[in-house]
Design brief:
- The protein is built from 15 helices and eight strands.
- The chain is α/β, with parallel strands linked by helices.
- The chain has one domain: Alpha/Beta hydrolase fold, catalytic domain (Rossmann fold, 3-Layer(aba) Sandwich), CATH 3.40.50.1820.
- An eight-stranded mixed beta sheet has the order 1-2-4-3-5-6-7-8, sandwiched between helices.
- Helix 3 runs parallel beside helix 15.
- Belongs to the AB hydrolase superfamily.
- One of its GO terms (biological process) is acylglycerol catabolic process.
- It is found in: Endoplasmic reticulum membrane.
Length: 336
């Protein structure tokens, strides 16, 4: 039996152990970001930056077909970056005069301020600011989007429909595997935990490491035969960890709540669309499952055309089946 006079000393000892453990644990959890692979390093070097309200935004801008007036702007998904498009980039330059992509604020090689209220509205304004920076604000552009980028595209479409001066002029819109309907969106468990972590969020995000990312955040949304390699996973993780991006994942995930709140605005913009619109769908997607998502999409947007890729293609169709994705997009672009 422990003597009563020893209890205070034992408590004091545990307090000291705890105080010593906290900085040690913090040092342990701060793992330096991984080095960029040669391919990802080359992608970064070939890109540029522009400033939006004091924040640096990374973008790529490639010139393709000479004499063509066509411009395509690519909008990436969560939680990755513009590098998601690298497998179809060259193919797009064979069809378009300008191929443009950006890393949204908080993603990839763009700035990742914290604390910061990240919103779909701000991301849409950044896209507009980029095109103004490039002198393309009066040009008609084709939007090609994925996942999170689909919602940004919806906001841009809403502004376009309102005929607001200085906004984007959209020629066509192609969406892919995005949660445009809150009711058919089934986020991963890790997404739910990080989004609703509350006071635990700072701890949870700091504990987000490559092991957690590579086991719980990415593989579940790839098809059984199209899982990314270890090197590809490290490239994805490197873009997230750049500028301590893992520490703001919970803030970025608030787009899920924004999508519910502004459903009428964003789904309404799609439902009344008059420009050519297309959807490229990987049907093995657990986040936007078949046939639930597709049935609602076709009911809501009867004028839209749809390309359904092979049964085993999942949430990242442009990475899992780049040729199938590119062929589907070119078929759409060449149809009008």
């Amino acid at each position: 039996m422990v003597r009563r006079d020893r209890l205070p000393r034992m408590r004091e000892w545990w307090v000291h152990v705890g105080l010593l453990a906290i900085p040690l644990l913090a040092a342990y959890l701060y793992i330096p970001p991984p080095k960029l692979s040669p391919a990802l390093h080359s992608w970064k070097l070939s890109g540029k930056y522009f400033t939006y309200k004091g924040l640096r935004i990374f973008y790529q801008d490639s010139f393709g077909v000479v004499g063509s007036p066509e411009i395509v702007v690519l909008l990436h998904g969560f939680p990755t970056s513009s590098y998601d498009w690298y497998k179809i980039w060259e193919g797009l330059t064979h069809r378009f005069h300008r191929v443009i992509a950006l890393d949204f604020l908080g993603f990839g090689f763009s700035d990742k301020p914290r604390p910061h209220h990240y919103s779909i509205f701000e991301q849409a304004s950044i896209v507009e600011a980029l095109l103004q920076h490039l002198g393309l604000q009066n040009r008609r552009v084709n939007l090609l989007s994925h996942d999170y980028g689909d919602i940004v595209a919806q906001e841009l479409l809403y502004r376009f429909k309102q005929n607001r001066s200085g906004r984007l002029t959209i020629k066509s819109l192609c969406l892919s595997n995005g949660g445009i309907f809150p009711e058919t969106h089934h986020p991963l468990l890790l997404h739910k935990i990080l989004k609703d972590g509350g006071l635990l969020s700072p701890i949870l995000t700091r504990m987000l490491n490559f092991f957690v990312f590579s086991r719980g955040l990415v593989p579940p949304v790839f098809g059984p035969y199209t899982r990314p390699s270890e090197n590809e996973l490290w490239d994805m993780w490197a873009t997230i960890r750049h500028n301590d991006g893992n520490l703001i994942v919970d803030s970025l995930l608030q787009y899920i709540n924004q999508r519910k709140k502004f459903r009428r605005r964003w789904v309404g913009a799609l439902a009344s669309v008059t420009i050519p619109i297309h959807f490229i769908y990987g049907p093995f997607d657990p986040v936007h499952p078949y046939p639930e998502f597709l049935e609602l999409y076709r009911k809501t947007l009867p004028r839209s055309t749809v390309s359904i890729l092979d049964d085993h293609i999942s949430h990242y169709p442009q990475l899992e089946d780049p040729m199938g994705f590119l062929n589907a997009y070119m078929g759409f672009i060449n149809s009008f």
